[in-house]
Design goal:
158 residues; mainly alpha
């Protein structure tokens, strides 16, 4: 048993008709505290840096745009168009979230990769510009090629 429990004052049993809140319980110091009355420390804005050049973001958006346009061309029809429009909204939300987060942070410096020969320091070591581009764009490029492949197969079958 904890020593804190042993230090509590002995409680009298409740009398018939006595309310629990009438002093039968020991006082609780934090019960009446109002959080709105205390002054909190000022909040710091998001300070993370994305450190990717704008060209990488544009290339990612272009890849997803190619994918969605290829799907739209491959499937056609009202139902497929509706599904592609919903997918477009999700892509816009994905990139829009980044935009909103960036608008909440202090102005960011230009990416270190905008300079020729610069490297990006990562948790696993420095990466050259081409390596960063390859890692950031491999999935969007594969998705774009998938959309183009679906469009080609659809055109060959139909």
């Amino acid at each position: 048993m904890s020593d804190a429990v042993l230090q509590l004052p002995a409680q009298k049993p409740l009398q018939e008709g006595q309310n629990v809140s009438s002093g039968a319980l020991p006082p609780f110091a934090g019960f009446g505290a109002n959080d709105n009355e205390t002054v909190s420390a000022p909040q710091q804005p998001e300070a993370r840096m994305f450190e990717l050049p704008a060209a990488v973001w544009r290339a990612m958006i272009a890849c997803y745009g190619v994918f969605l346009l290829a799907l739209l061309g491959a499937t056609g029809g009202a139902q497929a168009t509706f599904a592609v429009v919903i997918a477009t909204v999700y892509v816009a939300m994905f990139f829009g979230t980044v935009r909103v987060l960036l608008s909440q942070s202090p102005p960011q410096a230009r990416s270190v990769l905008d300079r020729q020969g610069a490297v990006l320091q990562t948790a696993f070591g420095p990466l050259a510009r081409g390596e960063v581009y390859a890692q950031a764009l491999i999935i969007p490029a594969a998705v774009a090629f998938l959309g183009i492949a679906i469009a080609i197969i659809s055109a060959a079958v139909i």
